[in-house]
Every structure is written in C-alpha cells, then in structure tokens.
Amino acid sequence: MKLPSFEYLRARSLAEAWALHSDAGGDAVYLSGGHSVVPSMALRLQAPSRLIDISQIAELHGVELQDQTLRIGAMTRHAEVLANPLIARHAPLLSRAAPHVAHPAIRNRGTIGGNLALADPASEFPAAVLAMRAELEVMGPEGQRMIAADDFFLDLYETALIPGEVLTAIHVPLPPEGRLFGFDEIARRRGDYAMVGVAAQADMSDGVVSDASVTLFSVGVAPTRATAAQDALEGAPLSSDSIARAQAALATDLDPPDDPGFPAERRLQLARVLLGRVLTRMEAVQ
Amino acid sequence: MTLHIGQSQRRENARRHLAGRGRFVSDLALPRMLHAVFVRSPMAKGRLVEIDTSEAEQSPGVVRILTAAELNARCKPWVGTLDHFAGMQSPPMSILAEEEVLWTGQPVAMIIAKSRAEAEDAADLVMVDIEDSEPVTDGAAALQDGAPLANSGARDNLCYEALLETPAVNEAFADAAHVVEASFTFGRHTAVTLEPRAVIADFDPSSGALTVHHGTQTPYQFQDVYARHFGLPEGKVRVIAPDVGGSFGMKLHVYNEEMGAVAASMILERPVRYVADRLESFLSDIHARDHIVKGRMALDAEGKILAMDVDDLAPVGAVSAYPRTSAAEGNQVIRLMGAPYNMPDYRGRLQVAFQNKVQTSQYRAVGHPIACAVTEALVERAAEVTGLDPFEIRARNLIADDAYPHVSATGYQFEKLSHQASLAKLREMMDPDALRADQARLREQGIYRGFGIASFVEITNPGAAFYGVGGARISAQDGAVVRMTPSGDIHCAISVTEQGQGTETIIAQVVADQLGVSPERVSVTTGDTATTPSGGATWACRGAGIGGETALRAGRKLRERILTLAGALLQADPATLRLEDGAVVDVATGEARITLEEIGRVATYRPDTLPDGVDHSLTVAHHFAPSGYPFDFTNGIQGSLVEVDVETGIVRILKHWVVEDCGRIINPLLVDEQIRGGVVQGLGPAFFEECQYDADGQLTNGSLADYLVPMACEMPDIEIAHIETPTEDTILGAKGVGEAGTAAAGAAAMNAVNDALRPFGARLTQTPMTPLRILDALDAARKQRTDP
Amino acid sequence: MKVLLSTTVNGEQVQEAVLPRTSLADFLREDLGLTGTHLGCEMGACGACLVLMDGVPVHACLVLAVQAEGSTIETIEGLNETGAAADLQAHFHDRNALQCGFCTNGMLMSAQALLEANPVPTRDEIRDALSGNYCRCTGYEAIVDAIDTTARDRAARTEAAK
Ligand SMILES: Cc1cc2nc3c(=O)[nH]c(=O)nc-3n(C[C@H](O)[C@H](O)[C@H](O)COP(=O)(O)OP(=O)(O)OC[C@H]3O[C@@H](n4cnc5c(N)ncnc54)[C@H](O)[C@@H]3O)c2cc1C
Ligand code: FES
Ligand code: FES
Known about the structure:
- The complex is a heterotrimer.
- Chain A is of the alpha+beta class.
- Chain A has three domains: 7-53, Uridine Diphospho-n-acetylenolpyruvylglucosamine Reductase, domain 2 (2-Layer Sandwich), CATH 3.30.43; 58-172, Uridine Diphospho-n-acetylenolpyruvylglucosamine Reductase, domain 3; 182-284, CO dehydrogenase flavoprotein, C-terminal domain (Enolase-like, domain 1, 2-Layer Sandwich), CATH 3.30.390.
- In chain A, 33% of the residues lie in helices and 27% in strands.
- In chain A, the strands form four sheets. Chain A has a five-stranded antiparallel beta sheet with strand order 4-5-10-6-7. A five-stranded antiparallel beta sheet of chain A has the order 14-13-12-11-15, sandwiched between helices. In chain A, strands 1-3-2 form a three-stranded parallel beta sheet, with helices on one face.
- In chain B, 29% of the residues lie in helices and 24% in strands.
- Chain B is globular and about 95 Å long.
- The interface between A and C is medium-sized, with 30 and 34 residues.
- One FE2/S2 (inorganic) cluster (FES) sits between chains C (98-103, 135-138) and B (194, 246, 500).
C-alpha cells in the first residue's frame, strides 16, 4: 500500500495553484488535509502525476463572522470545526456533525474544504452544509463564484467545482434566534461512516414550523434534501403527527441504492426511524 | 519466603514497548535486503493462460520477477492432511499457482525490488491472463452431486468427513419429552493481528545457512518445514521470532508468501523481506470458522439433557492448511458439543468441503465458539420449553463437581472441572434477579435488555494426540535450559514463545520459585531456534501448562545441582539445605550458609578448590511432554448483558462476566488480561467481524475500513472471577487460559440478544449479529405472529 | 524526484531528501530508524502510526513526509525521552495495558492528547478518544483503566500542589 510516484508542489497563492493545475493538463489533484487523497493513492485507486498542496494559501484559513454569514475557511480542520465557539453558536449543525466524522486524529488533519470537495455521499458535513442552506465560496482563474449548497453536490463524488477551481470557504447564513436544529446518524461503530444520517433545522413562528430544512446522507449518490418531508412539517407544530408525516414522506424523497447486503427498503426504514428521533429531539440555537 | 507463583508480576518486557523499543520483524532491515511483492490472482477460479512480465521487468528498482517455473522448483510442495483423519484429502500446494488459480488473491508471480514501493509499481504492470471459470463458493453446493471441482487436484469437493455416534442416540431422541432444534450459521472471520505477517529470509551461500526472521509463534516448526521443503540440513536453518505483533494461531500456518521469500533468498542469495500489507493480509491470512450447523437436543421431562445430534458443514477453501490441516477445527466442533453437561448420548457429523476461497484454519479457540454457541443456544431453548430459568437448567445438567473423572459422550476425558461452582459464582456476580427486574422495568419504557450465559470447556496442554499421532512434525514437548551464571543470576532458555501474553514473565516466576531467587534475577530467552531448545512453542494453549511445567522441572534439576555443589562446599548433607533469598540455607536453623553468587564464583573461577569429582556444571536441560491425559481441560462460564435498539438493530454490549478455572494461576494480572482479550476476540465475530464474499468469490470487505474489528467504544468492561482446580497431571497444576475468553463470549452474547428480543418472539441464529440481521429476525417474528 | 525536507523530529533539526510519495511513517521508520511508529493498515483505520505533529496526534501513514515541512514531530521515542508521559507509561505497565505492544505507541499518543485536552475524562470519553485505535490483544479495558488512573493521579497531584 505504497503511493505511486508523483510530483509534489506547494502553492503559496491561489493564482499559483491555478497555474500549477492548468500546467499539469488535468492530471493534478489539490491536497488539503490529504486524508482522502493519500489513502486512495495508497490503495492505487488514483494516481495523479502532480499533487498541489494548497494548505498554506491564506484565503483558505480562518473562521470569521461577517455581515450576514459565518465564513469558514476551507482549510479549517475537523477538530477546529468541533471546537470553534463561533461555529458552535452560528453553525451548530457542523459542531454536532463533527464528532461523528472519523476519529480524533483524523479530525486533526482532515479539512472541511477537502471533505466538501470530495463529496462522499456518506459524509456528515455535506448534509449539514446542505441543511444550513450554506453557500460555497469558490475561486478560479475566471474569478469568484458563490454556489448554493443545493447546487453544489451533484452526484457520486461529483460537485459543481470545475477543474482547477478551489473551494475557499463556506458561508453559513447566521441563524435567527430560536432556530431549532438536530443531527444524528446510525453507525455500526463510533466514527464509522453512517448507515444513514440526518441533519435538520427548522424555524418556528407562532408555534408552527415556518421553514424546515431536512437533509439525509448515506442514502444515495449524494447528500439529499428531503423536500416532501420538509413540506410535511411546514405550517404545523412540530408534533408526533407532523413528524410521522415527514417520516412517511421519505418514501418520496429517497431512492436509496439496493444492495443485497443493505436493501433499499431497510435503508428507508432506518432513515425514517432516525428522522423521527432527530425531529423529536430538536434543540434551539442559543 | 514469598512465592512468586500466584503473584501479579508486571511484564518486564513490556517496558521496551512502552518506550518505543519493540523489535518486530517489520522493523528489521538487513544489508542488501530486497523487498518482495506478489502479483495475485484477481479471480477466484480459472486457468492461468499467460503471465507477461516484460513491462514490469523494466520498471525502476526491479531486481527480478520470479514465476512458478523458477520459484516452485526450489520448494517441495506441501500437503495439508493428517493420517488420523481417515480418508482426508488435500491436493499439494506450491508457492505460485501453476495452471489453475484457486482463490482470489492466490500468488501467481513474485516481484523482487529494491523497495516495497517499487515492487508495488512493478506488480501493477504484470499482465495476468486468466481464463476464468465458475468458482465454487457455497459449501453446501460444493457437496452436491455434479458440482464442479473447486480444485482439480482433488477427487471431489469433500475434504474430510467424520461421524461420532453413541449406540443409543436414536432411542434417546425417541424417548425424549422435549426435542429442541435449530440451524446456525457462523460467519467467516479472520485474525487481523495488528502487525501483519512478516518475514525476512536470509540465505548465505558461503555457509549454506538459512536464517529466517519470522513473525511466528512456532519457530521450531518452521525450522523443520524450511529444512525439509528446501532440502537443507536442519542444523543449517535458524528461525528467529523476535517481538510478534499478535498471532492467535494465524501465524503458525505455512503460507505461500513466506515460502516464496525463502525460495527467493536462495535464488538471489540476498535477504528478501516480505511484509504483508493489510490488503494482502485479508486476502492471504487464514480465515476462521465458517460453519453451518444443524443441531438438535433431546431432554427428559425434568429438563435433563439426554442427547445431542449435530451436523456441521465447514467449507475451508481450496486446499487444507499445512501442517495442521483445515479439518481440525470441525473435528473439534463435533467433539466439544455438549461438553460441560452430563449428556449420555450423542451423534455428531462433520463434512469439510473445498471451495474457491482462501483457506480457513486454526485461530484462537479452534472450534470452541461454534460448539459452545450451538450447545448453549439449544440449552436456552430447552429452558424455554421446560419453563426453567437459564441458571436452573444448567444447574440440573452441568457435570457435578465431585463426579470426576468423567468421560464425555464424544470421548473426551475430564480430569477435574468445576462447572457447578463456576455457575454459582457467576450467579452471585450477575445477580440475575436484579437483572430480570431491570429488564421488566425498562421494557415498559421500550428499552430492550437481555442477558445470556454460556458454560464452556477449553482444551489445553495438548500432547502428541493432537497432531503428532497423525504424522505431523509438530512438537508435543517443550524444552528448557536453565543455568546459573557466574554471578549467581539465573538464565532460562525455553521453547515456548512470547507474543505479549507474558510467557517470559511467568517462566521467570516459576523458575525463581524453584531456585529461591526473585524473578528479577531470572532472565528468559525465547523465540530463536539457535539459542533455545526445541519444542512446540505457542499453540493450542500450552505456555503456562506445558512451558511452565518444563521450566519448573528444569529449575528443580538445577536446584539439585546447586544443593549438591553447596553440600560439597559446606561439607553438609544436601538434604539439610534449601535455596532461599539467593542463598543456600540450613533447613533446620534457617541460617544462610552461602550465597548463590559465591557458589557461582567458585564453580566458575575456582573449580580447583572443589573436592574431587564434584560436578560443577551449573547448566541443566529438561524436556517435558504431557503424559497421562491426552490433553487438559479448563472450564468456566460467561455472562453477557446487552441492550438492543429494536428500531435500528444496533446492540450495545453493556457488560460481560467471566468465571474461569484455569487450574493453578501463575500470574493473576496476566491471566485476567488473557481472558479480557479473548472475550473481545469472541465478541468481535459475534457482532462485527465477517469476511464477506460475493457470488464470484471476491472478498468485498478486505480492508480495515470495511472489515469491522471490535473497537474500544463498542466493547464492554469485563468482570472476572476464578475457581482454581489445579491439574494433578503436573507438579505446577496450571492448565492454561489462552482461549477461554474466546470460547464462550459469542455464545453468551447470542443468548443475551435473544433474551432481549424474547418479547417479540425473534431469534438470531447467525453471526455476526448485525443490525440488519436483527431487523430481519424481528420482521420474521412479526410476520409469523400475523400470518402463522 | 527527491525533495529537500526540513523538519524537527524529537527536538532535532532534520534535513533529508525524500521522495514525495514517502509517507511520514515510512520516512520516520526507514530514513530515521524511528521504528516505534508502527504500521497496521496504512489507511488511517488502526492508529498504530500516530505521532504528534505540532503537538496533536496525526496518522503518520496519511501524512506525506513532504507535508511535514517546517513542522515539529514527536514520536514515541521522543515522548519517552522527554518523560512527559512517564506516569502514563508506568500505569500502562502496572495495569498490563499492552500485550504484543504493536498498538501501544498509538494508544499512548491518543491518551496523552486526551489528557492534555480533558484532564479528567470519564471512561466513556476515554473510550471515545481511543475510537480510532485498534488493539487485537487486550480487549481495551486495561488501557482505559491505565488512562483513567493516570488522569486521576495527575488531578490529585495538581490538587495537592495548590
Ligand atoms: C480512516 C478514515 C475515516 C474517515 N471517516 C470519515 C467519516 O466518518 N466521515 C467523513 O465525512 N469523512 C471521513 N473521513 C474522510 C476525512 O474526513 C477526509 O479527510 C476528508 O473527507 C477530506 O478532507 P481532506 O482535507 O483530507 O482532503 P484531501 O484528501 O486533501 O482532498 C480530498 C479531495 O478534495 C479535493 N480538495 C481538497 N481541498 C480542496 C479545495 N479547497 N478545493 C477544491 N478541491 C479540494 C482534493 O483534490 C481531493 O480530490 C475519513 C478518513 C479516514 C482516513
Ligand atoms: S497505519 Fe496509520 S492508521 Fe493504521
Ligand atoms: S497489545 Fe497487541 S495490538 Fe494492542
């Protein structure tokens, strides 16, 4: 399990990163934490001729409160996501998701940017980012783009990033007081990729749900927004009735893979159970 | 003076590991060493058409690419059969596949390069053309008429078959008040030692000597294997097993890759290193278990067991492992059924089948977890039909503690066991009444807890009855050389080996007590065929029982020597002297007469001052093989408490209890940790571990990300208690404890899960008990309730 | 093509030319002879290869040696020499929290980092901190006990010092 040969180059700026990338004619891969790139190369699942280390580029670092959003730099490590008080306050779904992402030492290196750019369908952060209706800040030679999370995760390990573009940050809209949120997953062992996972948030007005956002992961090729379940919650108090309707609606929302070891029907069943639990235990943003 | 046997001594050799100074084969680098990587068959079955190495030869760093024609010629093929398994067949095996590939991952070519990375680069460039054919994957299908052969070298797919039967078994079932029955499926799993298999073969043509640094538990066995299969005089072969990063039976089998490293070193006349990476481990280490068992149990109206009738089908791969065979596990499965119980009659049938998967063979607790789970699950069902509680039905059936010696229906001879005392002790520890009350209370809240128990016996201290009688060159004895150094310290070189279980520590304790010194003064050498006497080393639980007894007897021999010498020096009758606190002491007065240091000085530097004819050689050797019983048995009982999330199928293991009787306990600290480690190796396959294959014979979860090993968060705290019934076959009385934990943990857990699911009428009979299998069982029960 | 790497390992300045494909683990083990860092899976799933990188545990099998440019690495050999974890090592020894010793390096690294971040963890927190450390031999309980005892000892000593 040794990596195949490649050329390693460190980019000090975005411009340098793009140049090194285009220069390699498509055979280059950006390296952030490397905790997906390195094992996949060790397994010889990929063998790019060039790795471009983007971890030192200033624009990718830092967590800061901006006007309307919390800007989380792409190089923010999972451990920082877990511990950062601004994230806990303004993007609690990420803080709740982080302990489920792998193990402590992996979290010391893995980055949220790398995680989102990889877009593993079993991964926690993409579903959280989707549920928060965050926007992804992307920079390429053609300039900056802001991509809504709903438009970012396209397919299995496929995102809206075009080759050479760098995901620089995640912008999480600041939550209103009283927003409810919940996150959980069913995993065989602590830190394992989930069998199924749920991220949800909901705003309440006059005792009824005014804006529900429900996403699931490990249910298909990409993190999935459960629009029918959201509709089932909308306009009603968060009660066992509305929750039951949301659970039932998952049949419309999800089309899970049918694997002999894990039939689609079972995954749907687990998704319903988990959604019920998450919606029942929603907490308010402090 | 205080005795050290029975004390919780810490392991001196643990300090090195804590300081990062372990010495594993995978750490070793020899001058001019080359690295080996194997090109493996991507298919489970097929005809090898062509191997094209031309591109790979040009790859940077490649020194040589070896194919079957060159490599296999160096090594006599091996055949994994034993004479006492009558009718057993297994085709010969060579290092590389020649015409036919038999399992996914079988080596077909060997790359030798300057680094492991370069060897891997080249392996990617070898073109292997295989005309694939339908593999035989399913064990039952393999034995059907007209099934294709898994291995064209075999007569048919039946590797071995056996039947044990008492004359009255049919009557027992006919007369029974109750018969319970079930079918069980036990998944294939594997050892996953944290250090993978590692070997460095170093053939020196100038002396004709082969030195093999080998991460194995049985260096002497490999010395013999290498000598015979490579045509070398045994005296020219040295096998060194330094620190070994886990073994558990997996590292005592002969593997294609290790044989390949030796052959390559002989061809290239340079050291050749092969360290399996984790992917290769999953493809090539032996797998374990894989049994489909149908079982029935007959009981009388009082709930007394009358008989069992079991049928075990064990698919074992395309060839039987060498030199212990892949039939030994099934053989033990059918012999261990019902072992803790008074069971007059029995029928057990075993069929061992060939299939196109990597071999299964001996792994910690060979056969025990299967026999125990089947027996204990049937006892649990018997409790249900007779309305007895799990403790009561066992109390009625376990062999009474004063009823020994006892011969089981399967022919095992038990010297003295303590099942009833163990059961009583477990009851005290678990407090089943409180558990039942909790269970009832929590069920009201929709929380489903259950507990289960499982009695077991463990086979230990094997003599020649295991393998020797079948013609295998596997040592039934162990040997020790004990000497006193010129400074009066003690050194013991012994054939039993250390993989972290504490062998060196207990040997030091045993020897220390024979010689009246503290264990700190006893240094122990293991794991090198050039510096220790020959013996069985580590297999089937023999370190304490056989190794300990060997050390004890050797220590006593040296004691007699020292006392004789002291008698001559002191002009005293040796019978009036004993050894204590590093000195020779007058028995009558307790007065120290002369120190060991002084004796060492005289014997070494001034033997001229001794009276004529006094033997001053302070080195003795002793070899010991068990006689009397063919092997020992330990016994015990385990309990498990679990909570099942009936909506998700996720199980939390809350607690585990063990009562164990391993005879004389040499070191309680080490014994308890052997049990804990063993329990977790039993719980792993009960809940998580399984080698999953698809219909094409591809292993689909062969990495540590996909194969689920038990980790810290999922494993429980384990409470342990002991009963101590020493064997009278030896002076030491130790029986061994290596496999006890693994033997019954899964059985107790399965009973616990089924207890939790009882309100739903759901029942698990397959391991691992995964969430999906639990949900399936709940669905099946629901279905049966709605449309019976 | 080899790249010049300069980094600090166990307090010593190291300058070596390395191939980019070389993992930090292979660099430490093969180039520097620091074989106390073990390899059990080479994909981040076992924890045998943990080292402290700029003070926090990371998997040396998943970090390229070239990524360690300018950082500070501490391996088990270095940790042992500083004596910073001497009490932890002693409790592992007392409690027999290791058998074959292959996982021990990683266990000590995880434990040391845990106790720095959370001086008096619960048993569940200890198990959680070890969630990426595989041990085939011990069954984990002795390791949890040893860390637990170390934590309580350290806390008692801090208390006494006040
Ligand atoms: C044993 C193990 C267990 C794991 N368990 C989990 C888990 O439970 N849940 C989970 O979510 N993840 C898990 N992971 C994955 C881990 O979180 C990864 O580190 C993460 O997904 C990728 O982050 P990285 O910074 O390491 O990315 P890298 O490996 O550096 O990069 C990943 C991919 O993204 C690209 N990329 C990286 N950064 C950028 C950027 N800024 N812009 C554009 N493209 C970029 C890279 O080119 C590459 O294709 C696990 C990993 C391991 C090794
Ligand atoms: S070797 Fe790095 S985690 Fe296993
Ligand atoms: S002590 Fe052997 S793996 Fe932990």
